[in-house]
């Protein structure tokens, strides 16, 4: 990957796995040989706190206000960064719009229940305000039993949205990994959480290279 690719991760509701998805994509990109930075726009600074617990150098995680996004992207590119993930605040607003505006792809994790699915119109508005950039919905934190994740994916697809074919299920490896500054791919490389995470990254990458 020569030119710098930028992926933003946005959500309307908190607790849908937004930062987990952002860090998962970032680490997968590192493991694929990229120089990766994460811009943490979320005042809760979850990604920044995660990197404080981390031993590996990459991905770089930098907490910035959305108003510094353009300058920060240029600085990152000047330092040879070729993959950037932007983690945004929950309750999608102006910061999310700015993130979408500078992104080659926006990933939108949603939990497979009505309260989250009801936020689809507002999330779609955010994408439009950001310039109608490419977007990908991702079913996140689905139960490992039953077909609620698949049902949600089918419903969102029927609304005309692009949905990732891989579902991220609610697995303990994500939580345990975050506690020690890792992601599931590093914490349990041969586990189900790692397998799903890598498939999500590969699908994301396929959209970035079109």
Per CATH, the architecture is: 3-Layer(aba) Sandwich
Return the domain count. 1
Structural class category: alpha/beta
Number of strands: 7
Largest sheet: 7 strands, parallel
Taking all residues together, what is the mean pLDDT?
Answer: 92
- State the CATH superfamily name: P-loop containing nucleotide triphosphate hydrolases
Q: Which consecutive residue ranges, at least 5 long each, have pLDDT under 50?
A: none
C-alpha termini separation: 12 Å
Rounded radius of gyration (Å): 16 Å
By CATH reckoning, the class would read Alpha Beta
Strand order of the largest sheet: 3-2-4-1-5-6-7
Choose one word for the global shape: globular
Write structural notes for this entry.
- Pfam families: CbiA (PF01656).
- This is CobQ/CobB/MinD/ParA nucleotide binding domain-containing protein.
- Residues 8-93 form the CobQ/CobB/MinD/ParA nucleotide binding domain.
- The protein has helices at 18-31, 46-52, 69-78, 94-101, 114-117, 120-129, 148-158, 172-179, 184-187, 192-208, and strands at residues 5-9, 36-40, 60-63, 83-87, 105-110, 135-142, 168-169.
- The chain is of the alpha/beta class and 210 residues long.
- It has a single domain, classed as P-loop containing nucleotide triphosphate hydrolases (Rossmann fold, 3-Layer(aba) Sandwich).
- A 7-stranded parallel sheet has the order 3-2-4-1-5-6-7, with helices on both faces.
- β6, α7 (148-158) and β7 (168-169) form a beta-alpha-beta unit.
- α1 (18-31) crosses α10.
- It is globular and about 45 Å long.
- The chain starts with a strand and ends with a helix.
